[in-house]
Amino acid sequence: MCKSLSVTALLFGALGMSGVVDSMPLGIGEKATAEIIAGWDIDVRPDGKGLPVGQGSVVEGESLYEAQCASCHGLFGEGEGRWPVLAGGEDTLDTDDPEKTVGSYWPYASTLWDYIHRAMPYPAPQSLSDDETYAISAYVLYLNDIVDEDFVANKETFAAVKMPNEPNFYVDNRPDVKNTRCMNDCLDPSTFDIVTTINGITPTGHFKEDSGVAASHHDQNTLTATPAVALANKGAHVVKMLNSGQSGAMVFEPAVLKISIGDTVTFVPADGGHNSASVPGLIPSGGVSWEGDLNEQVEVTFNKEGVYVYQCDPHVMMAMVGVISVGSPSNLSEIDAGSKELQSRFVMNQERLSGYLAELK
Ligand code: HEC
Predict the structure, then answer these.
(1) For the CA atoms of the chain, what is the radius of gyration?
(2) Is the shortest distance between the CB of 56 and ligand 1 below 6 Å?
(3) Which of 117, 209, 268, 337 is found 20 to 30 A from 33 (Cα to Cα)?
């Protein structure tokens, strides 16, 4: 049964006990009859539960599809113009240009029946009969080489269709998803060991020192792990914006970064409320300047040698600043002199920036 029905049943149960269900004391709404409920209860589940009696073949589906769907989705599911592509895209999901289609991506055929029946054709949703939906769904599966041209879809045959990408959908079984929430007398986070992180995304500042730095990615976590691997490539660096890091409150981490000419730095808002922006006058002349938006990741490529100073705009008074040295720190003395004005604006951690710059000497 769908969610709306159980919610309705619950509500009515509660109201029934106080004896007000029939009188509708507020004078609004109407009683949900079995017929009204049936109109909402149209979901089809992954195991096929909810599929109605009826049938339709690939052959019948072809002409229906051509008349009602092809104008947008293309005769072969290739998509007209910028309308969605429904077929093809096999083996593209782990490439730089993944094409997610019914055949390459969707885990369950039942979703296709449900979706077409519920939402398509776009200009006239829910206008298809059950038999037409079976026939068109069968044809879309045929366009994806998932069924043969003599396939006839019905409750049983449709529920038995296996989609190629189903095994790549699995329940998140990393250990931390099974923890129960603690509301009082909780463990001290600084004693935690992080066993899996997404590099640059998982905030590690509150946890045990070094925890998670060399954290291993869970075996089945390869899809989410990919960007971390890419970022860890030579020439690509990550700086996290943190409320609390190993060197105190409101910090970039690492705050001092030495990189090579041509390297890229990605500033990641691991905690909220921060941005990264270069400080005018405190970068090499002709060097790149940047101004990231609040809570947004920003990626900067450094092609000009020298020292760059940057800040978090909302937290500059708390000395939330960082320095990047590209190649050799040839302009360090200018930056040192020029940074006095910025440092005079810090109301706390006054020594931070001079300390960072000293690390480059
Ligand atoms: C007027 C253009 C149009 C027509 C006609 C049309 N669709 Fe669509 N279809 C769309 C659009 C737009 C979307 C995306 C809707 C969204 O994401 O909310 C879509 C999405 C879909 C999807 C999901 C694609 C995906 O991978 O997310 C399927 C399946 C689909 N349509 C099947 C059909 C079928 C079958 C018909 C014919 C009965 C049909 N459509 C007719 C415009 C159309």
Answers:
(1) 29
(2) no
(3) 117
- For the chain, the domains span 43-168, 229-358
Q: Going by CA atoms, what residue is nearest to atom 19 of ligand 1?
A: 84
Give yes or no on whether 43-168 and 229-358 have one common fold.
no
Which residues of the chain fall below pLDDT 50? 1-21, 212-232
User: How far, in Å, is the centroid of ligand 1 from the Cα of 109?
Assistant: 15
E strand or H helix at 264: strand 264-268
Q: Is 136 in the pocket of ligand 1 (CB under 6 A)?
A: yes
Determine whether the shortest distance from the Cβ of 64 to ligand 1 is under 6 A.
no
The whole-number pLDDT of residue 325 equals 95
Fold of 43-168: Cytochrome Bc1 Complex; Chain D, domain 2 (1.10.760)
Residue 288, pLDDT score? 96
**Nearest ligand 1 atom to alpha carbon 68:** 37
Which residues lie closer than 8 Å to 100 by C-beta, 6 or more apart? Answer: 89, 93
> Model's pTM, two decimal places?
0.52
Architecture of domain 229-358: Sandwich (2.60)
Contacts of 262 (CB under 8 A, 6+ apart): 235, 301, 302, 303
